[in-house]
Amino acid sequence: MQLLQATANAQTAWMTTVNHLEAACDEVWLARMWEVEHLENQYRACQDQLFSYLKKSIAF
Predict the structure, then answer these.
(1) Domain that residue 32 falls in
(2) pLDDT tens, residue by residue, 14-56
(3) pTM of the predicted model, to two decimals?
(4) For the chain, how many structural domains are there in total?
(5) Alpha-carbon distance 10 to 39, whole Å?
(6) At how many degrees (to 10) do helices 2-22 and 26-59 cross?
(7) Cα dist. 53→6, 7, 31, 44, 58 in Å?
(8) Which of 9, 25, 42, 50 is the most exposed place for a label (fewest CB within 10 A)?
């Protein structure tokens, strides 16, 4: 259950940052791109863990 919540939180943080950057000026956008990449990577890692867990639980 914690992994599901972590995945949802990571997605929310990532998408909130993306939406904020869409409305920001170019300087802010450029300065925060690393944050977007980090949040996306965190979300993808949570998804990978979740899928791995589900795959293992289905296989057994």
Answers:
(1) 2-59
(2) 888 888 777 777 777 777 788 888 899 999 999 999 999 989 9
(3) 0.56
(4) 1
(5) 7
(6) 160
(7) 14, 13, 35, 14, 9
(8) 25
